[in-house]
Amino acid sequence: MTPLKTLDGPDHYQIAWIAALHIERAAAEAMLDEEHATPTGFTRHSTDANAYTWGRVGDHNIVIASLASGVYGTTSAATTASSLLASLPSIRVGVLVGIGGGIPRPDEESDIRLGDVVMGQPSGRMGGVCQYDLMKAKSGDKRERKGFLGRPPTVLLNALSRIQAFHE
To answer: For this UniProt entry, which segments traverse the membrane (predicted)?
Structure first.
């Protein structure tokens, strides 16, 4: 077995990929072009219980983490991300990758399928993603939005603009 490449510091990793389910983590790890050993000089924060996989996709060194098995939801995702950032302050972009079970189909032109990448785009005063549990049921089968998630990082919105221009 070939020894894994080791980078000389955790600062070489600027993208974090968080998976909610173990099967989604397996898919993330299968996407790696190259797996790495834990970087030299990596110091885990005392509150960080995450298990990491280090590697490269294309030109980007990424670190993969997942929610604890059997523990799901926004609190678990926030804990995983906070712990990751405490140990890896060089992370610039973090993505939670998983199955978008709550993606609406507002019209027939929206053909969203398993495997598609969906990213929130700010509109007006909204950040672009309305979290499923941020709605309040009202009488008459109506719903009232209680809130929304913040907008994606500018670096991702710039990439989105480039993709949109390509498709024009």
So the answer is: none
